Amino acid sequence: MDTGRRLETRQRCGTLINVERDELLKELSIDRKAAGARHSRAGWVVALAVLLLGVLGGGLWFGFARLGPPSVRLAVAHSSRAGGGTSVLDASGYVTARRQATVSAKITGKVVEVNIEEGMRVTEGAVLARLDDVEAKAQLALARAQLTATRSQLGEIRAQLVQAENDLARQEELFKKNLVSAQSLDAAHAQRDTLRAREANTEDQIRVGQESVVSAEVQLDNTVVRAPFGGVVVAKAAQPGEMVSPLSAGGSFTRTGIGTIVDMDSLEIQVDVNEAFINRVTPGQPVEATLNAYPDWKIPGEVIAIIPTADRSKATVKVRIAIKARDARIVPDMGVRVAFLESRATNAGQATSRPGANPAAVRVPTSAIRGQGGEGVAFVYRDGRVERRSVTLGPVVGANREVTRGLADGERVVVSPPDSLKDGDPVKLLEGG
Known about the structure:
Layout: H1 2-28, H2 32-67, E1 71-76, E2 78-79, E3 87-97, E4 100-103, E5 109-114, E6 121-122, E7 127-131, H3 134-176, H4 182-221, E8 224-226, E9 231-236, E10 243-244, E11 254-255, E12 259-262, E13 267-274, E14 286-291, E15 298-311, E16 316-323, E17 335-341, H5 344-353, E18 362-365, E19 375-382, E20 385-397, E21 400-405, E22 412-415, E23 428-429
Parallel strand pairs: 1-23, 10-11
Antiparallel strand pairs: 1-22, 2-18, 3-13, 3-17, 4-12, 5-7, 5-10, 6-9, 7-8, 9-12, 13-16, 14-15, 14-17, 15-16, 18-21, 19-20, 20-21
Helix pairs in contact: 3-4
């Protein structure tokens, strides 16, 4: 009986031990599903953090970009009196160059070198291109060799002439003593005179040889194409390997020019004025020109001359106008509108007699002024920043507004200033501004 009880008790203890061991193993085991859920939640948290950082960075970048200086365009305030007064006539025309040349070689030859490109500025005498000079160099060498040979002949003839003159002197002495015949004396004279003639002929040949050398040097120099005046290259017409000729040789394989050069200092404006209004134009009259490409830029000018002939088909008279503001933006063949202004004498008389006339008034584009009525605001550019300036406004003249107080001649103002622009703000100039 005791033995049976012991066995039963031992079995129960083993069972309890096994149960406790299983429970401990379950507690030590890893729950794969729970771990995966935790990893998934961590991934979403990281992704959300990255997204928030990206949005925050973009907002900061946009904010800093907005804080950068605005880009503006400027216009120059011009004196109303310097402009000559109000417009009495408007006309359209083009910018032209008085000095413009298509440069070609003086001889026909093959191009071996071209040293120009469009837009390049060249000085007078600069080498634009070179032609094949092998034949020209050979001709020069031949002319020099012939000149050297002729000079050698002259030396020989002069030596013979010295001998002939000595012989003649001896023959004359002997003839006086009746020791030789008159025939011998005549022969000595003839020998001397012959050598003198040969000497003169050889000297003439030397001069011809010298001229031949000069001509050969000129032909060699003609293989080099140089700029006739300083200016800007506006067209390149030839490439190495092509044939060029000063005259058209027919076909499309021979060029007649190397390139075209324009003297930018000779630019002027030519307009056609209706002959019915030409009486309003006089030489020396001030004008205000506006390029089609830069409508807010007023260029001062002056009438050079009225061409004394009319175009029957168009009933117009050509007028030449000098440009008084040199600028790289003014290029040939640009379209331009010209306002012929009242003469200075007339305008000065009106300014003196008109009550309340302000000789310090200036004109600026209408878009550079904020405000209506008689008061407004303009932003003056100076050293990278703008200065808010209260101005007194005058009448509107075309696309401009007259400012009677607050601006000085030559000051630069911001055109179409942004609404956020304030006094002292830094600004960045647009190209051409």
